[in-house]
Amino acid sequence: MTYLYSALALLLLALVLFFISGRQRRQAGLPGGRVIYTDTQGWGKVEKPLYDADLGLTGKPDYLVEREGRIIPIEVKSGRTPEAPYDSHIYQLAAYCLLVESAYGKRPPYGILHYPNRDFAVDYTPELEAALLDLLADLRRDEHRRAVARSHEERRRCLGCGYRDVCDQRLF
Predict the structure, then answer these.
(1) pTM above the 0.85 mark?
(2) Domain for residue 21, yes or no?
(3) Which structural domain range is residue 59 located in?
(4) What is the pLDDT of residues 105-162, one digit of tens each?
(5) Which residues, including other chains, have CB under 8 Å from residue 93's CB and lie 6 or more apart?
(6) In a domain, 97, yes or no
(7) CA–CA distance, 150 with 169 (Å, rounded to integer)
(8) Is-contact 39 61, C-beta < 8 A?
(9) Distance CA 117, CA 137 (A)
(10) Percent of all residues in the chain with a pLDDT value above 70, rounded to a whole number
């Protein structure tokens, strides 16, 4: 009889843990599949960054989920949920798609941007990849210029910039 009670207790514990893990997965914005990479402390040790030597590109997506033989990068954003994803977030996710293809030899069909109140699936199209490569080329060109003009008129962005103390173009 004690074996039966022990077995029932273990079964109940397993169900509780299964429920908790499912809730954590939903809160993190993860689709079904196996988590193969994470850059958050909550799911275990932080993985090393993905790297593409040809492009000199490094990145750490929040999660990589393997589902049906495909690897899907997921980026979690904690700020307010926009009506549509910001371009900078789309390019960040596209960079992760490019790094996944480089590191795993599998091209992701899409990536996921998870905001507090909504998820966006962003297709990783050849057009998005080309736009990302053009942006990276522009960045490489600009990193050798002595002066680069500010690309925005937003005080909030200047407030969050790490160069604001030495920038002669800041907005405040």
Answers:
(1) no
(2) no
(3) 33-124
(4) 999 999 999 999 999 999 999 999 999 999 999 888 887 777 778 878 888 888 888 8
(5) 73, 75, 111, 112, 113, 122
(6) yes
(7) 7
(8) yes
(9) 34
(10) 75
